[in-house]
Amino acid sequence: MTGAVLFAGCKPEVAAGPDGRIIGVGGRARAAAGRGAEVVRLRGTTWPGLIDAHIHLEGLAERHLTLDMTGARSLDDVLGRVKKWVAGLQKHSWVVGSGWYNDAWTDTAFPSRHDLDKAAGNRPAYLGRKDGHSAWVSSAAMKQAGIDRNTDDPPGGVIDRDDQGEPTGILRERAMHLVAALVPRATDTDLDAAMARSLAALARLGLTSVHSMDTARGFGSFQRLHARGKLPLRITYNLPLADLDGAERIGVRSGWGDEWLRIWGVKAFLDGSLGSRTAEMLDGSGTVRLPQKDLMDMIDRCARAELNVCLHAIGDGAVRRALDALAPHRRASRYWRPRIEHAQCVDPKDMRRFARIGAIASMQPIHAVADRELADEYWPKVSAHAYAWGVLERAGARLVFGSDAPVETADPLLGIDAATAWRRHAKWHPDLAVSRASALRAYTSDAAYAVGLERDLGALREGLLCDLTVVDDGRVVATVVGGRVSWMRKPSAASPRSAAGAR
Ligand SMILES: [Zn+2]
Predict the structure, then answer these.
(1) Is 338:326 a contact under the CB 8 Å cutoff?
(2) What does the DSSP 8-state code read for residue 21?
(3) Residue 161: enclosing H or E segment and its boundaries?
(4) If you ran DSSP here, which 8-state letter would residue 49 be given?
(5) Rounded Cα gap, residues 57 and 68, in angstroms
(6) Is 404 left (phi over 0), alpha (psi -120 to 50) or beta?
(7) Half-sphere exposure of residue 435, counting CA atoms within 13 Å on the CB side?
């Protein structure tokens, strides 16, 4: 045995050495692997392993721990799910869940705490909206948090109120923390089991790496799973702005960690979301979550600490502020790879600035599919440059793609479709689509570059880590990380070719 592995039957064939790096590709693979190599038989096209550049792993794990309201069609549907869920709970337990989305309901009005009180049996309840920018809480939860008609809106947040000035139970942006802080947390053991399930599901989708936007709690879980050899894919972790103090004190820098788990950037929110009507627009609408002075201070500190920045900016106003703040820091350090997360709406005047400033556009094509109607309704004047992958690419910006799961599906093949063919089918500004080659680059080599791993990941080349996504007939058939199969489709007698081809 040579310790080498040959991935055979796929195009191109690839050989990995015992250290998990590529030793041969295409015509060179068999000779490089040698006679004693283990052979994994596959078919289909071999891509460099797909990377999701923006994902929330804690949010995905939460779905196994809390009530999931994804896909509910109406308020009644949601309340029905709540009633079912609480049947298994103790009398005073918290009801915790997420995924409701009133924009997809028959009646799109925001729900109230009174609806929830009945369904939750007067328990304290905290239900996050699909986009994570608002929460629906019960009267008991508000009481525990001390929120009543006399409570002021916290900075950067809104407590919705009715005509009489009474809180309705909807908390937006930073007001969510008033109640979120009280929600009891799952134990580490439960969290790790849920996390392992979520990561396995991502491997099934063909993902070999992710860039996670999570908190210290998630990072703790990744470390425990890593110590037990249980990571099926590589994780680059971005910490929240609230933890920048700690990162500065211990002196951690971008890239610290190993091939499986490493630290990269600091994530900060400049504004909210389109769905929650809190995207900060140049027309003055929306919510400023991080004022410019604080943003400039944060970037200064990160540049000095050699930590990268991931700036959440959805509205054209927030995107402009991010570019303004990044402009003076061009080439702040050797691996300075600042990113603007989402960049859903970019003013035409700002398109070229991405390349000039060296800001990476970290976008999630699948958002366009879900948001199209909302964008046409709320951004009628700007939807021609919303989710504008094609224009940004032509303006020289480097694009990296992800999913923002659990906000949207993590399936990268659906993301690639959204970025390429979908615009044409949907007849929605087809000029904003990108080519398949560009979409793949945004999910592989450019995503690797965005976290300083361009010499290790993102291409089928000797010396790089052997991460592969093998796709046949529009379906992932195998996911390989570091020369080891992390997931493989079981061969089925009757392959449903026609159904899969419909994707
Ligand atoms: Zn996100």
Answers:
(1) yes
(2) B
(3) strand 157-161
(4) P
(5) 15
(6) left
(7) 5
Contact predicate 450/337, CB 8 Å:
yes
Give yes or no for residue 502 having a pLDDT over 70.
no
251 CA distance to ligand 1 centroid (A)?
Answer: 26
What distance in angstroms lies between residue 401's CA and the mean position of ligand 1's atoms?
12
Report CA(54)–ligand 1 centroid distance (Å).
6
Report helix, strand and coil shares of the chain as percent, to nearest 5: 35, 25, 40
- CA–CA gap between residue 291 and residue 154 (Å, rounded): 15
Q: Quote the CA–CA distance of 361 and 338 in Å, as a whole number.
A: 9
Terminus-to-terminus CA distance in the chain, angstroms? 41
Q: What is the DSSP letter of 408?
A: S
Q: Is residue 357 predicted with pLDDT exceeding 80?
A: yes
Separation CA 279–CA 291 (nearest Å):
14
Ligand 1 center to 55 CA (angstroms): 6
Q: Which residue type is seen at 465?
A: L
Question: CB count, 10 Å around CB of 192?
Answer: 19
29-84, pLDDT tens digit by residue?
999 999 999 999 999 999 999 999 999 999 999 888 999 999 999 999 999 999 99
The number of beta carbons lying within 10 Å of the beta carbon of residue 468 is 27
- The pLDDT score that the predictor gives to residue 503 is 34
Tens digit of each residue's pLDDT (9 = 90 or more) over 225-260: 999 999 999 999 999 999 999 999 999 999 999 999
Could you give the 3-state DSSP secondary structure of residue 114?
Answer: helix
Q: Residues 130, 133, 136, 141: what is their CA dihedral angle, to the nearest 10 degrees?
A: 130
Ligand 1 centre from 430 Cα, in Å?
Answer: 25
Task: Convert 299-329 to b/e letters by CB count within 10 Å (16 or more is b).
Answer: bebbbebbbbbbbbbbbbbbbbbbbebbeeb
